């Protein structure tokens, strides 16, 4: 009962916004071209699903986001472990990576297109670039936040480097790593939008851009809402695994949590 109440509370604000939006649209307080009502957007969503167009574009976008996240996230995790584990690696690599981290997607997207063309390679690499840094930074910080006394214990137990990583560093860094995964997934969807808006013939980003050209605002809203829902769904999956694997973590959850 308590879990159901918490879920309903989470949906309270979105429901109030949608109801207010719908009422304002029905009363003629909104320009239907610039801001269609939720009911009109829903009808457009049903139409796009029934024709199979939305499902097709969503499948393409999901595949791109998954490949980009797996590539960038795995490299970010490996780099975070390496740099976090080695002071020399930090001095050598981290300054350059931090400089690259500040480059916005929109600034480098044209360069990726010039280098790799309009095909899938440029899109996946752009997504991977964005997914790399949240996992890299959080893994690095997670390792560096491990209590130094634990490393002394590991030396006494004569842990090999592999045992040190597997039995000490990774478990102690898991909260930060999961945070990095969640942030990387969010950035992956952001990078996907930029990649598909810059040049694509399929995908939700392409659907939004094509609808914008013809002022089909309802289709634009459908694409935006789909991105939001898929992003929330993927984040919830990671959060579910995080809650299962980090049950031992007794962290503060708010003064009003019962």
Automatic annotation (TrEMBL):
Task: Give the top-rank taxon of the lineage listed in the UniProt record for this protein.
Answer: Bacteria
UniProt record similarity statement: Belongs to the binding-protein-dependent transport system permease family.
What SUPFAM superfamilies does this protein map onto? MetI-like
Q: Domain ABC transmembrane type-1, which positions? A: 54-237
Gene3D superfamilies named in the record: MetI-like (1.10.3720.10)
Entry's Gene Ontology cellular component terms: plasma membrane
Q: Which Pfam families match?
A: BPD_transp_1
Q: How does it sit in the membrane?
A: Multi-pass membrane protein
Q: Which residues cross the membrane?
A: 7-30, 66-87, 99-118, 187-207, 214-234
Presence of the UniProt keyword Transmembrane helix in the record = yes
GO BP, sorted A to Z:
alkanesulfonate transmembrane transport
Key words of the record: Cell membrane, Membrane, Transmembrane, Transmembrane helix, Transport
As recorded in UniProt, coiled-coil segments are none
> What CDD domains does the annotation carry?
TM_PBP2
Name by which UniProt lists this protein: ABC transporter permease
Per UniProt, subcellular location reads as: Cell membrane
């Amino acid at each position: 009962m308590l879990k159901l109440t918490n879920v309903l509370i989470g949906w309270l604000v979105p429901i109030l916004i949608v109801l207010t939006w719908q009422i304002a649209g029905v009363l003629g307080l909104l320009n239907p071209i610039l801001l269609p009502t939720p009911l009109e957007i829903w009808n457009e969503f049903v139409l796009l699903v029934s024709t199979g167009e939305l499902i097709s574009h969503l499948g393409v976008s999901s595949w791109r986001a998954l490949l980009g996240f797996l590539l960038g996230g795995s490299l970010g995790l490996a780099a975070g472990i390496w740099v976090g584990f080695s002071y020399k690696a930090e001095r050598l690599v981290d300054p350059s990576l931090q400089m690259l981290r500040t480059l916005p997607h929109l600034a480098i997207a044209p360069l990726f297109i010039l280098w790799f063309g309009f095909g899938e390679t440029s899109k996946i690499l752009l997504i991977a670039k964005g997914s790399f840094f949240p996992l890299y930074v959080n893994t690095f910080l997670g390792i560096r936040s491990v209590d130094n006394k634990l490393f002394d214990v590991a030396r006494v137990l004569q842990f090999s480097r592999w045992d040190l990583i597997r039995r000490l560093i990774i478990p102690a860094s898991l909260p930060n790593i999961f945070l990095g995964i969640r942030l990387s997934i969010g950035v992956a969807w952001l990078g996907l939008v930029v990649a598909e808006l810059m040049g694509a013939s399929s995908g939700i980003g392409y659907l939004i851009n094509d609808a914008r050209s013809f002022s089909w605002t309802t289709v634009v809203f459908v694409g935006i809402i789909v991105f939001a829902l898929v992003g929330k769904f993927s984040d919830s999956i990671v959060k579910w695994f995080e809650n299962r694997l980090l049950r031992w973590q007794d962290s503060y959850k708010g003064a009003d949590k019962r």
